[in-house]
Amino acid sequence: MEKSKILYVTQEINPFLIQSEISNLVRTLSQGVHESDKEIRIFMPRFGVINERRHQLHEVIRLSGMNLIVNDYDHPLIIKVASIPQIRIQVYFIDNEEYFKRKFIFNDENGKLFDDNDERSMFFCRGVLETVKKLGWIPDIIHCHGWMSALMPLYLKSVYENDPHFTGSKVIYSIYKDSSKIKFPKDFTKKLAFDDIPTDELNINGNVDVNKLHEIGINWSDALSICTDDISQDLMTLINSLEKPLLNFHNEEQTIEEHQDFYEKVLSENGVLA
Questions:
Q1: 30 neighbors 89 (Cβ within 8 angstroms)
Q2: In sequence order, what are the beta bridge partners of 22?
């Protein structure tokens, strides 16, 4: 029987960024799923704070070299890879000198948000999808973690809707407690329009904050996972109104088992045996 394939798209994973709710859960979950004999791939941004020498990142020449158009400008896509120590799991890094070669992650040294965090998110999501296609690896499930992956369900269900590489893939979006002050600029929808995304269906008025990004991820995904016991009432109301497959918040000790069961449920609905 062919192994089911799980693609993890995350803005962070331990040990490459400081420990957080997202980075620790994705590390625990990906390791547990990998050890249960499923195929996995992990993608995250190559933020400038990641120490390439310490973590032994190296460029994958055969995957690098393409250009992605964001906001009507070409941006070179560079792919790097490193292994998580002890468990032999590779992590692929989406890199671009303009977007990611910085000493800080989302804010500058004065705490001011970068003006192009929206473009960085767009580049990251598209970079993952284009690289997965180049790998020739077809995921059964695409599991998104963190606001920087919130556009992934939107891209999959619009720009890549008829791409045969992803027509059988189900996308899960995980919601975390997020105190981020992220705001995308008012011209964000114009940038999305360059990618032929149906912006009129997004109900965006003015700036886009982290809750709006969660809302986009929730609306355009196939299934949802709640990874916090502190979720806004507005998001909870939206989730309950959609009647999508849902994995509710659970104890950390149950993470692997609960997600394994959830994956099986989503995969069985997709006609793929887990």
A1: yes
A2: none
Confidence check: pLDDT of 139 > 60: yes
Cα–Cα distance between 153 and 76 in angstroms, integer? 23
Other Cβ atoms within 10 Å of 49 Cβ, number:
13
Question: What is the DSSP-derived secondary structure letter of residue 167?
Answer: T
Task: Go through the domains of the chain in sequence order and give each one's CATH number.
Answer: 5-269 (3.40.50.2000)
**DSSP assignment string, 13-47:** -TTTS---HHHHHHHHHHHHHHHTT-EEEEEEE--
Sign of the torsion angle spanned by Cα atoms 105, 108, 111, 116: negative
Distance CA 202, CA 80 (A): 33
Residue among 219, 175, 172, 182 nearest 197 (CA): 219
Query: In this structure, is the dihedral angle defined by the CA atoms of residues 104, 109, 111 and 117, taken in order, positive or negative?
Result: negative
- Residue 271 confidence (pLDDT): 45
Q: Is the dihedral of CA 33, 37, 43, 49 positive or negative?
A: positive
pTM over 0.90: yes
For 189, the token pair is 């929808």
In the chain, the N- to C-terminal Cα span, in Å, equals 9
Considering only the C-alpha atoms of the chain, give the largest distance between any 2 of them, rounded to a whole number of Å.
54
pLDDT, the chain, mean: 92
Closest CA relative to residue 152, chosen from 9, 2, 25, 3? 9
Confidence of residue 2 (pLDDT cuts 50, 70, 90): confident
The pLDDT assigned to 274 comes to 42
- Give the side-chain half-sphere CA count within 13 A for 242: 19
**pLDDT for residue 270:** 55
